From TrEMBL:
Gene3D superfamilies: Glutaredoxin. Pfam families: ArsC. It comes from Limosilactobacillus alvi. Belongs to the ArsC family. This is Transcriptional regulator Spx.
Length: 142
């Protein structure tokens, strides 16, 4: 199962949900405007992110600019309070499971949520299409 946190129902959120569900991945959605994050949840997201606040905070957001956040020196408590007051400072959507986190919708990055066994099967199918198959007359067809 994958968790998807969002604050607006924008195209990237909808694309992410469609992409995940079309691959049989169960998605648990949460609107952060209606159910804000707790300090513990902010800590969990930061622990999953490779680049800390850079992965989570949208620096182009009007809300982020209005709050004048110093993302390099902000404490976890200050960040949690800012997200609770204005969830739109987060990138949208925030997608994660127990070990991985992706923000926004990027097809290449989303592949980390597909189980390894399924990825190998898809790769095998792709390679089979690319492998030349000999014909009875000796010709090779791609």
């Amino acid at each position: 199962m994958v968790n998807l946190y969002f604050h607006t129902n924008d195209p990237s959120k909808r694309k992410a949900v469609n992409w995940l569900t079309s691959r049989g991945i169960k998605v648990e959605q949460r609107n952060l405007e209606k159910q804000p994050l707790t300090k513990t949840e902010v800590r969990q997201l930061l622990a999953l992110s490779l680049n800390g606040t850079d992965d989570l905070i949208s620096m182009r957001s009007r809300d982020t600019k209005a709050l004048k956040l110093d993302t390099q020196n902000i404490t976890i408590d200050e960040l949690a309070a800012a997200i609770e007051v204005s969830p739109r400072i987060l990138k949208n959507p925030v997608i994660f499971d127990s070990t991985k986190l992706v923000t926004g919708f990027d097809r290449e990055k989303m592949g980390i949520f597909i189980p390894k066994k399924q990825r190998r099967l898809e790769l095998s199918r792709l390679l089979a299409k690319l492998t030349p198959s000999p014909q009875p007359n000796g010709q090779v067809v791609l």
